[in-house]
Amino acid sequence: MNLKQLSEILGLSQTTVSRALNGYPEVNAETRERVEAAARKHNYSPNRRATSLATGRSMTIGHVIPASTQHEMVNPIFGDFVAGAAGVYGEEGYDMLFSHVTDGDEERAYTDLKRKGTVDGVIVQGPKVNDARIEVLTRLGLPFVVHGRSSGAGQDYSWVDVNNRRSFKRATEFLLDLGHRRIALINGLEDMDFAQRRRAGYLEALAERGVTPDQALMRSAEMTEVYGHHETRDMLALSDPPTAILAASMISAIGVRRAIEEAGLTIGKDVSVITHDDELSYLRNGQDVPIFTATRSSVHQAGRVLAEMLLRRIEDPSVVPEQILLEAELVVGRSTGPVPTGD
Amino acid sequence: MNLKQLSEILGLSQTTVSRALNGYPEVNAETRERVEAAARKHNYSPNRRATSLATGRSMTIGHVIPASTQHEMVNPIFGDFVAGAAGVYGEEGYDMLFSHVTDGDEERAYTDLKRKGTVDGVIVQGPKVNDARIEVLTRLGLPFVVHGRSSGAGQDYSWVDVNNRRSFKRATEFLLDLGHRRIALINGLEDMDFAQRRRAGYLEALAERGVTPDQALMRSAEMTEVYGHHETRDMLALSDPPTAILAASMISAIGVRRAIEEAGLTIGKDVSVITHDDELSYLRNGQDVPIFTATRSSVHQAGRVLAEMLLRRIEDPSVVPEQILLEAELVVGRSTGPVPTGD
DNA sequence: AATGTCATTCAAAGCGCTTTGAAAGCCTTT
DNA sequence: AAAGGCTTTCAAAGCGCTTTGAATGACATT
Questions:
Q1: Could you tell me where the DSSP H helices lie in B93-131?
Q2: Architecture of domain B60-161+300-326
Q3: Which residues of chain A neighbour B45 with C-beta distances below 8 Å?
């Protein structure tokens, strides 16, 4: 059932039927009702591709997944973020498209997306320091918003980010207040912008209290469970092990906990742990009392906010870029305590 | 730059340029080269929507996410599965589209997808017992494959599944061999088909050894960490607590571990744990020696296999449905041991 | 009665591509 | 020299929709 057939059945022109269905005012109320009834009856809905070709809009939002950072996709954080965005897309009638790109081809991918008209806009995830994508997208004129920021990207662009520097600074201060001096940072990959900012906050807090940072206590990699475990085990074996650990995600914090327990130590007593908590649906930080003391910020919510921002930009691309900086809460759980008195 | 412009530049008809670019044989070799060079030079690539409209193929695969089972998307397992599928789509030039559907509207969503021509096929995830989607899709004639099976769906359809019954039977037997008799099952949601089969395997093993199943030791819910923790804590408080636990996923197993340790017990000694391990990228089951004894089957691999199967069906919808039953390995880790001798 | 206005409706062009059916040009065969 | 067969190219139709510009008819105004 297509528009032509429907209009023939109704004895109307395609124009009138199309207008009736799309809510244009210059259609007789009675006619409109007849058309709508017929559409329902014959189960008509317009062909997306044809509509898209005619209007120049695809009603689809793109997410480009590079093959290397394919890890991006398997990261549980990704799921919650994307689910947040998808909720908004759904409400507004947009679909979400993932384009899987072989490495280094990102620029070409965006160019293609624009030229082929596959999507109306894209969300940039996991921005690195000095991320090239921002310049490419600005140049292409393809509407986009960034989850996070990219230091040194130059352009003025739309983003939503957590105040990573401040939240990690506060977390570090919290540990310092408890008397800890040997504080380790199990960070994410440091070419990621967020990881840089977290480290900056951590270092800033140490500096203000006159604590000299120790390279041996600063680790950086993709935030898996095994990684959290491995680095913790490694650091606990040091002659001067940390008494507190800052972890970058719930997943690596789980590895941290495993290593601490394997070492026969008690979390929150022998070793304090603070993690960043993205409020992942499948990895809630406990039920009533949080398992981990944590800097908390919902990545699901961030997904919603970004999607809304992007749709606004698509509506009116001329609007000036928006920036939203979310503050993370510092919630106290059972994983932190005063520094153990040496004996 | 579109086809018309490109053909004007070249002094050729659109037909010839289109054919040259699409590898049709009836184009002079020299002409083809000229066309290809020009296309590269002017950075031409065909408009997806127009191509799609003309050919009737969208080169897109759909995944429908119901709002309720939106949890589906935030499930870390989902990420790995989808990444596996996305890899195949990428290689074959397909895109992946997520359609977010308000609840109960799934049937309409599929109907729309078909009628609007948005996708060439869909992957059905998380099939329930007697899943209605299979009948709908068969009726619509929209190519599809199922990740898992749906008992009682009647139709003959294509699927890839893990032998859940057998793997949970083996895991149970493994525990029985170690002398365990109080074996708990922390299952997934039991309207999910896979959970039913796992329970069947578990019960079968118990029955063959003459062990009477205990309802108090069988739990079922969405496989989060908190759930694993909660049920374990609850069961350990029983007057006759389990000495072994079967968990449905790494995530809930992590919660199980937490509860065991909180109770001051040692995993693998006081309580044995076996989990199903989907080989999630961010939640590897240890590095060399597995953390948990586990039934292991890569969900990433399943994603690849299903995607390939679907593309085959799209190529030739008349081909008879394929079915692949994957066997899970039973790998022994440090979470299982002989039943503690009562004292 | 002639003119102007408004509310409705329509025919046709256009979005950018693929594909059908025909034409043109050049060889080969008779 | 005419006919037939290849190879290569092309004009035009068609995919299903939106949208422009025009037409129609009813009604109010002069």
A1: 106-116
A2: 3-Layer(aba) Sandwich (3.40)
A3: 112, 115-116
